[in-house]
Design a protein that fits this description.
Structural class: alpha+beta
Distance between the termini: 31 Å
Helix content: 10-25%
Radius of gyration: 19 Å
Number of strands: 12
Length: 278
């Protein structure tokens, strides 16, 4: 999988950087066993929990898709971190999505069962970091990207599998109902755009919201105006295929999608233009 920022107008990407939010103050009572994760029971503010996440272990990530080489980190099993979320033990695993919230609005989500099915880790330190520091920076074209404070990685997932997300600059993890996402986005009355829905979910939803569900790195694509209502269809498809041919210094990468896949995505967006909601 590739990890990159998107352009200001459309589709998916692989990049991540969150802005930490204030959480409730830790209990001052010395008998307290742990601080509150956040103002709700379904999320954990990783910055506030920095000293409570648990012991680290050294891991090796072969062919890391962010750094494009084999990397070593000090990390904590993601399953251990998820258990720090107050409501974790009470959720229906099969019906739950994990949302990774990043500083720049990149908010990828994955089924909880998918995350737990692999050796997923919360990396807290890069072995290649300069002395006295936890992290290196990452050069993405002309931009220098910050990896800190946390990075989700895997030791048993191929980097080119786009269904697994590798968010860095991570600050918060939340749990949400899978049915909420499905209810807002799934084309319930038109089977012809289901494939487009799947492609959009894999390549676009991490950075763009649709009907209020999804990332905030790029603009909402359906409300109040669908992108299909203010872009000419041919230009929209061409932009998705080669964004650098439309914008100077565009942040959106060339996604490598085939023309048929782009048609499917645009068809789904056109369908959703008739199914708007806040």
């Amino acid at each position: 999988m590739q990890r990159v920022l998107i352009s200001i107008l459309f589709l998916g990407c692989v990049a991540c950087q969150p802005a930490s939010k204030a959480t409730q103050a830790e209990a001052t009572d010395s008998t307290s066993q742990a601080p509150k994760a956040s103002t709700d029971s379904l999320s954990i503010d990783l910055v506030a929990w920095k000293d409570k996440l648990g012991a680290t272990e050294s891991i090796t990530v072969p062919n890391d898709p962010v750094f494009h080489r084999t990397k070593q980190f000090d990390a904590i099993p993601l399953a251990t971190v998820l258990k720090q979320i107050p409501a974790y033990t009470s959720v229906n695993t099969a019906e739950t999505q994990v949302v990774f919230e990043c500083e720049d609005g990149y908010n990828p989500s994955m089924p909880l069962t998918k995350v737990l099915g692999k050796k997923a880790y919360l990396a807290v330190r890069d072995h290649d970091a300069p002395q006295g520091e936890d992290w290196t920076t990452l050069q993405k074209g002309p931009e220098t990207k910050k990896i800190a404070p946390y990075y989700i990685c895997y030791t048993d997932v191929p980097g080119d599998d786009a269904t697994y997300k590798w968010p860095y600059n991570l600050v918060k993890i939340s749990l949400t109902s899978a049915s909420k996402e499905t209810q807002a986005l799934f084309p319930k009355d038109d089977d012809s755009v289901v494939k487009g829905y799947g492609l959009f979910k894999t390549h676009c939803l991490t950075c763009h919201a649709l009907n209020g569900v999804g990332g905030t790195l790029g603009p909402e694509l359906n409300f109040p105006k669908s992108v299909t209502e203010y872009w000419k269809t041919d230009d929209l498809k061409a932009f998705i295929a080669h964004p650098d041919q439309y914008r100077n210094k565009v942040k959106m990468p060339t996604l490598g999608l085939e023309a048929k896949e782009i048609n499917e995505i645009v068809g789904y967006l056109s369908y959703m233009a008739k199914h708007k909601s806040k």
